[in-house]
Amino acid sequence: MSRWTIALIAVISADWLDGADHRQGRPDVCSLRSTLDACQFWPLDWFRELRGLSARGLESNTLDYSRQQLKTGLSLAVIANIIWGVAALFWIETQPVRAIDVVAHRAIWSLPIATVILLWMRRLPATWALIKHRKTLLWSACATLLLSTNWGVFVYAVNAGRATEASLGYFMLPLLTIIVGRFVFQETLSMAHRLAIALAVAAVMLQIVAYGSLPWISLVVSITFSLYGAIRKNIVADTMQGLFIETLCMAPFALGWLWFTGGAGLGAHGLRVDLFLLLSGVYTTAPLLTYIAAARLLPLSIVGLTSYLGPTLQLLVAQTALGESIDLVTAASFGLVWIGVLLVSGQGLLRVRRQARQRD
Q1: Torsion sign across C-alpha atoms 86, 69, 304, 136
Q2: How far is CA 147 from each of CA 226, 250, 311, 346, rounded to the nearest angstrom?
Q3: DSSP code of 29?
Q4: How does pLDDT run across 36-68, given as a tens digit for each residue?
Q5: Does pTM surpass 0.85?
């Protein structure tokens, strides 16, 4: 992939990740992407060679990144999104454990992994210092509620044969993030953004008219994670610190739930199910670590574009491996959302052409 091609990808994806902040005269960072703006750690040995790289601002010119950085970063971003994209194949193996039980296990088994990583980074004391701030703890508690809801609804969708609806929610996520940026951070919307949002609303209305109810799984998945991103923007913590704090907030409730339910399904459905429950923490943290490494090596605008690989794979897995079917109404809803994404991406294409002419 040429450097100019990667630059084109960066600007196209940045268009739906950014909102133009005319008050400051520069692109403002949208709430979702800002959740990763302080990723400065290297949890695995094979990342150590990258430690010498200096952090780069989001406004950095994509062409300033070395070819090796771009190649490695893109590979890591793709790996992370593949793991997320096939997640349904992992969580389906936890059946017949209930979604709320699976969330409890994810919280419990993610916490020790996050703790070990922070110890390895020698950042656990700094993380405890963050927890002592009431504002940080309050925002983290709100983020925890949203994240646990997102986890639970996704697992429920997979086990209930509705993973296609969850996939639609993640396709809607960038559009919901634009809405959050507008109303929470007063970001200015372009005409393409407005049309994209209108198309997303039309997709929801289509399902209401056709089915007589809201597509609640799609909406909960997208709304909870877009609001989660907005809240994380107000927390001075990197992604792993955030995961540690959030799972720490979940831990007392998760442990209480395990005690109350007699193990939350652990030991009740055979060794195979138990193994997947015990590995839920690994599956939660592994793609996150890979994604963070990619974010360190790449402009986050490029990382953002790869995020559509995840829901695309989710849709493919739902329609093939899980044997779900997609009706005309759902297909039309996907089409409306995809048109919205193409609109904002097309606006980015025009922008990169203007920038190219200015360079010439």
Answers
A1: positive
A2: 10, 10, 17, 31
A3: E
A4: 333 333 333 333 333 333 333 333 444 456 778
A5: no
